[in-house]
Amino acid sequence: MEAQTMLSGFCPNPAIPSVQNAKKPFFAKPPSSHSSFVQSDNWVSHRAVLSISQRATKRMECTNNAVEAVDVASNEDLTSGIRLKKLAVFVSGGGSNFRSIHEASLRGSIHGDIVVLVTNKQGCGGALYAREKGIPVISFPKTKDEPDGLSTACLVATLRRFEVDFILLAGYLKLIPVELIRAYAKSIVNIHPSLLPAFGGKGYYGMKVHKAVIASGARFSGPTIHFVDEHYDTGRILAQSVVPVLPNDTAENLAARVLGEEHRLYVDVVAAICEERIIWRQDGVPLIRSKENPNEYS
């Protein structure tokens, strides 16, 4: 199947412009149509798209140790009235944060569903996990190693087809293009394994971060979750968690402790995002409103 044929269902107009909603802080969803997806071994299949709606029709709630199936086909939370959010996750590697978020969604800790995975490496662990769980996988960007990758315009159009509300970067190592940032204004977050703004920026990723932290003599490290702008690791900070750097730490030991805290923090933050508990201070700083006490923020 030729690439142009595969793209026809996703990007009917390759010149589709980026859209920024100036009135609301989050991306407003257009009407959707899933009728034109085309199947391909390296692409998002129609069967995979159907599995999204099949998964969305039933969620499980645990009450008094009994499991009760609740019909949420209307995407409405029966207790709060908040619409179930649709999430896209971007990965380049093993995707352990992606897995923890997905598992939290399945058990109901996050009021959202991961409807699509985007990767620049089709063979990475995160992409393999997504396929095992029936989550559609998309290649981005188009490169020599990933010839089936989408252009930025087609990626935006495809995410709209999936009705994506928020984008979660979970170890995605490519710079996000400005067109995507504008289309999803204040709706893209990233997790970084240091206390930004320290040890961030181009070239600071994975074990390189932890080696730099130890070499600096810093006594504390930990993950940062921030909104994404057009540069590496410079967007507004949303949440941080402190992890001590021990005197005899290796980069591997520190990385393991920080990663454990990443899993906890990212799930908590995504839960807050899906529950619409993010507010923006007048100076542009995002805050998380407490679920238990709406008058408290973090």
From TrEMBL:
It comes from the Eukaryota. Its main location: plastid. Residues 85-270 form the Formyl transferase N-terminal domain. Gene3D superfamilies: Formyl transferase, N-terminal domain. It holds the Pfam family Formyl_trans_N. The keyword Chloroplast applies. Belongs to the GART family. HAMAP family: PurN. This is Phosphoribosylglycinamide formyltransferase, chloroplastic. It comes from Ziziphus jujuba var. spinosa.
